[in-house]
Design a protein that fits this description.
Layout lengths: L1 H12 L5 E7 L6 H14 L4 E5 L6 H6 L7 H5 L5 H5 L8 E4 L11 H7 L5 E5 L10 H4 L3 E6 L3 H18 L3 E9 L2 H19 L2 E9 L2 H8 L4 H4 L4 H12 L21
Parallel strand pairs: 1-4, 1-5, 2-3, 2-4, 5-6, 6-7
Amino acid sequence: MASDQAESLRRLLAPRVTRRIAVVGAEPGAGTTTVALGLANALSMQGERVLLVDEDTFGARATRLAGASPTATLGDVMAGRTTLASAIGTRAATGIAVLPAGALPSGTRLDDAAMSAQWPDMRTVIVDARRDGTGALSPLAAVAHNMVIVMRPEANSITAAYACIKRLHHEYACRQFQLVVNLAAAEGTVVALARNLARTASQYLGVEASLAGYLPMDPLVARALQLGRCVVEAYPAAAATGALRHIAGGTGAWPLRHESSPQGMASAVPA
């Protein structure tokens, strides 16, 4: 609790910017929603105002697990058809705001100034990101300040994580990535895995991949899902909750990605 209070104070004193974090799964089933929703809840516990953007078009899993009842989409807000407060509707019990992504209107400005003005009350926007059939991100996720790659400690997931990093680097000029290993059995294995992946990414791609943390194999995660809730909200003392709060406590130290215009995407959504 003391560390959460200290982290909250440090964030309040930091320069004002609406930090955007895209949580991207190395492959389907990696645990993207668990991490995205868990981080949103953990940051809210630290006193932050958090908006979670749910890009799961068909399942709306994060929205359901949060217990939120939005009345519109982020696309509707950005198009001026409704206000953010109205679109959010009923907030989750933990206080986070959740919105389905929807379709952003053509010409939407996605630079820091425009987006901080769009969400003046939000300190952090987390995108539960989904890649399309070609592996591309949405325009919103593509201009996130931080890219979080969620993976599992398995060979196919490690290979998929490297491929994901390579694609995002070449497509969006991302040079720094945060790694979260889900369903980890032992810390030593996770550290060695992350070190090897970081070394390979640095050697062949010239990018930096850092271990943000890991989620242990915790049966309470599955139990919370059965109850239709997030583990952080349902089981505050769970091992996975502690891990997510630890990761959330470190987000303020993650370097912000500088605004750029990879293929013209940083300042506006392509027409």
